[in-house]
Amino acid sequence: MQLIYDYEPEKVFKDVDVYFYGAGTGFSSYSKIGIAAFKSINKKPVAFIDDNFIGNSDKLFDIKVLKPEDAKNQIEKLGRDYVIVITSNYFDSIAESISKFKLANKAYGLTPLKKNITEKSCSTLISYADALRKLEGHHSKSQQYDRKIQTLKSEKINIAFLDIQLTERCTMKCKDCSNLMQYYEKPINADHDELVTSLNNLLEVIDDLSEARLLGGEPFLYKQIDEILEILVKSEKVHNIYIYTNGTIKVKRNIIEALKNKKITVEITDYGEKLSRNKENLINSFEEASINFVSHKPQNWTDSARIVQNNLDEKNLTQMFKACCVNDVFTLLHGNLYHCPFSANVVNLKALFPSDKEFVNLKNLSFEDLKINLKRFIFGRPYLESCKLCLGRDFTQPLVEPALQIKKNIPLPDFIRK
Ligand code: SF4
Ligand code: SF4
Asked: Which of 54, 82, 173, 307 is a Cys-bridge partner for 25, taking CB atoms 3.0 to 4.6 Å apart?
């Protein structure tokens, strides 16, 4: 969201509805300043917008306070031109909310209204001296927000690893699957339209992707994998594409065709003849079609695939996140981008209350807002909420036997179900 804090109030607010975003917990100083300034230009806001208003009624200064979603409905229903003025210093959270609810691409700060406030217009609302002092603070916060947005805009988004989780389904049931497939009771595939939209949006806003990795579960259970490959192959931003299979599925002719590209490598984990029953068949097809592939036995599996309550304090969570070998393996699952595969699946399994700070929704934002949200998300986390439910992945965890098969899914731990 672009913040405009140098403008002519009389021109900008003429003949449009004005919404004040920020009612505050009670009567905030900034809402009082807005009302005082508008008195001088004989204008009244149509409504306040606030997602967290604490007042005795749903009105402030006899003006309705709307939740952002209700404001969106009202604006659409009225169909009139409107602008939003930010009557708060919480620019970041308001900007996030404005973009989340698609309320506007820009909003106005209070700074230029300084010339419209007078001793008289402030009268019973706020002391004139206090209003001027508060406006100074508001102005410097506006500049700070603006500088941050400019910096975020100029930084490039280069992603090293992107896991694209095509499905929650697998042909095997490993007790210690690090993607947490063992916890799924009713696993499903990705919705194809949602996946295509979110992947295209992501590729539009990032600058570079070293390695896209298609996996699941078992990625060859996803029938339109060829269409996803086509998108990745065509994108000049994507350098390498890996597909991780367990060697259980015979791959169809159209998929073989789609795999014929030098960017693509299929990585077959060989779990032995009994489990990876189609490994030889796959290898023959790949050799015949000159498809890049590697085949290897499962490598060291660590005890990192359990959902636990680790009770670590902030310092240790930060340390755990820093040391984690997958903290930058961004994961695309059901239209959202997560920091790591564990986080994606722990949220998807509803083992964690789905806070929207844990992921970025790739479907609903303008490209500009998506870019800014992504940068905030990628660069601004000391640790994830998901880390609180994780044992960490820094190779110091004890080793476990790879691919130990279980018959039934593992129920989520009791502390989650309570
Ligand atoms: S083969 Fe095992 S480790 Fe691999 S995705 Fe399936 S359940 Fe997980
Ligand atoms: S939740 Fe945290 S510690 Fe666990 S895998 Fe993800 S980033 Fe690493």
From this structure: 54
